[in-house]
Amino acid sequence: MTVTVTLPERSQTAAPVRPAAFAEKPSLVGLDRDELGEALRDKGVPEKQIKMRVAQIWNWLYVRGVSDFDHMVNVSKDMRAMLKTHFTIARPEIVEEQVSNDGTRKWLLRFPPRGAGRPVEVESVYIPEEGRGTLCISSQVGCTLTCSFCHTGTQKLVRNLTAEEILAQLLLARDRLGDFPDREIPVGTMMPSSDRKITNVVMMGMGEPLYNFEEVKKALLIATDGDGLSLSKRRVTLSTSGVVPEIYRTGEEIGVMLAISLHAVRDELRDMLVPINKKYPLKELIEACRNYPGLSNARRITFEYVMLKDVNDSLEDAKGLIQLLKGVPAKINLIPFNPWPGTNYQCSDWAQIEKFADFINQAGFASPIRTPRGRDILAACGQLKSESERMRKTERLAFEAMMIANHGEDDD
Ligand code: SAH
Ligand code: SF4
Fold first, then answer.
1. Least distant ligand from the CA of 382
2. Per residue in 276-316, pLDDT tens?
3. Any catalytic annotation for residue 208?
4. 123: annotated active-site residue
5. Which residues contact 174 (CB under 8 A, 6 or more apart)?
6. Is the Cβ atom of 237 under 6 angstroms away from ligand 1?
7. Is the CB of 59 under 6 A from ligand 2?
8. What is residue 374's predicted lDDT score, i.e. its pLDDT?
9. Which residues of the chain have pLDDT under 70?
């Protein structure tokens, strides 16, 4: 059942409700080193100090995870006062934190308005598993694309998230999971990566990351920076519906792992399920995948395939899938369709999903079935949503009851 937790002491200091004037200051989170240097120079920091100050601030922000300038104890008081006057490093507000009975956590975050924009709300999800923990983050509020089985696709794009807002999802989750070193630990100490709760990040939340390329690139380069958050590029996966030109750029300029929302193996069907296919058809998509740099048996592209009853789940489709991916280092991730209010699709029967998976396995492809996680808190793929589209409480209770009736409560 859904558990809504009251935030303990630590988060109240980490995520205060801030007065508007404070919220509108520019954030130092999400700036690359050059931009950070420029911001300091602009406020009169002498040129000969810039490199050292940038390194100090970078360490505080991304190794120690501070969200208050006063905790930067090796930065002089005057400098801290100056930083506080002009900038913020505060976290977004946590509107709600939910913990599923399977340990999945979901946060609804509210980002303050920047410039003329309005505040936006975003959900991110943490999925603990044996030996690893994955954080699923969003790149946009809503989506311009209209994949017919995706709840996000029914929502208009509200706006792109900034690099700060993309990174803030990771910083906040690390705060809440205790993934930053305690404040008492001496300056310069790093948290051993083996102790971290978040070992993997997937850009599989709301939005199409490759339609927000520059900000996503900035955020992921900071998240994988070895002197900061230090996530390995092999443990960061960007999922795209298939924006072909930006797939090439992702390989060249970001270098993280790639996941493709494939969902169909014939153009005619994919045009309906994933309409961007009309612009970038399967042939071009698979060609871009073949050319993705650094692929090997140990470094494969993930192909996501949502199992839709009587739509794309026949053994003919499975055969087509094997043919399409011949020679591409690939794993196939079968996702049981997660229903949402108003959808006409149904999830394939479990027996059919297993038959489909076996068929693909026999052809030599790894094809794990993605276990639905956090179902009781609507944390599954395609179920994240923006404030404007949030279900009313009565609607939500009815939906949760339907999900439980359809699936049983603990059958994962
Ligand atoms: N826009 C990007 C990333 C976000 S979606 C993309 O499309 O790849 C993450 C994954 O969940 C995608 O593969 C998406 O197709 C899938 N998905 C969307 N709605 C779903 C649903 N209702 N049930 C199961 N998977 C869904
Ligand atoms: Fe957008 Fe991805 Fe949903 Fe398609 S599946 S509508 S690209 S979020």
1. 1
2. 999 999 999 999 999 999 999 999 999 999 999 999 999 99
3. no
4. yes
5. 65, 180, 197, 198
6. no
7. no
8. 74
9. 1-23, 114-117, 183-194, 375, 378-412
